[in-house]
Specification:
With 364 residues, this protein is α+β, with helices and mostly antiparallel strands. The chain folds into two domains: 135 residues, Creatine Amidinohydrolase, Chain A, domain 1 (3-Layer(aba) Sandwich); 223 residues, Creatine Amidinohydrolase (Alpha-Beta Complex). Helices cover 35% and strands 23% of the residues. It is built from ten helices and 20 strands. The strands form six sheets. A six-stranded mixed beta sheet has the order 4-3-2-1-5-6. Helix 9 runs antiparallel to helix 10. The longest helix has 24 residues.
Length: 364
Amino acid sequence: MNERLAALRGLLDTRGLDAIALSRSANKRYFSGFRLSDSEGPTSGWSGTLLVTRDATMILADSRYTEQAQAEAPDWELIPTAGRMDEELPPLLRRRRVEALGLEALVVSHADWAALAQVAPGVELHAMDEELMRLRIVKAASEVDAIGRACALTDACFAHLMDFVKPGMTERAVAWELESYFRANGAEGLAFDAIVLAGPRAAMPHGRPSDAVVERGNVLLLDFGCAVDGYRSDMTRTVFVGDVPDQIRRSHVAVREAQAAVIDALAVGVNGQELDAIARRRIEAEGVEPYGHGLGHGIGLETHEPPRLRAAEACTLEAGMVFSVEPGIYLPGVTGIRIEDIVALESSGPRLLTTSPREALVIG
């Protein structure tokens, strides 16, 4: 934690700030150890706000969290609160002589930001989201280990599902089974709401499970992950339920080869845009439109973090980054194919943290 706090305090100097208030749940956990569930953040950003100056570290928590904060962040000064941000924060800023304050604009609501600006007119408010995310973009070995354990549990869950899923089940039943497996085998919870889509519904990249039935001749798209010690996994596999048309088989091969070509090209210093182009060229060679989403995203205490691998954004890969590689083909009214794995980039090259089979598996 000391190294993390030193890096955080470095932003005070580079941005000319007196203090930074942290409202994002992942940042609270990363810098202090104070843990909030997804339902308590990031949008409920006032709960357990951290305030960091050059010589002080404080947790502002109401009675719901004071005992927890003392246990999980014993080295931080606890400031009991009972009111809104614009009521509790200004007196503390005055006592600490804070004239320039960093905030997370993507988490603090516009109403809270405006109210704070009105009651603390002598304090300049500065958005710090990108700078803060950069501090978490390169993962420590302990973080990679936690992500790896979440990925291993996800691999085990997938193997379980391959024995469990049968034609005639609904998407919702499969989704409930995978969540139950995670809970029963040590996960803190889901990394995100699982995507379980059968047949033509798989053409929706982020569709929600329904009462649609998994039928023979369908593909079944499974996009799911869990949280272990706060760190997330994210994996997608597209399996065949019995025989499927040749077009679908060819699309699956194209996506698998596109992903493999990207993984082969992964190295420190490579631009994410180049990787996205590699995947798109292979899919376009199949005569179909490639995916409309990005090729991949970082993962850690949040499921979607920098780096972002996509055509519209330059990103130079560094050793220690952990991210997904997830090309896809979506054919509205027919089906969708996506294969996604989590990769830890090391100085020697990529290391796959998800290891489930990528070739087309047939169930039922």
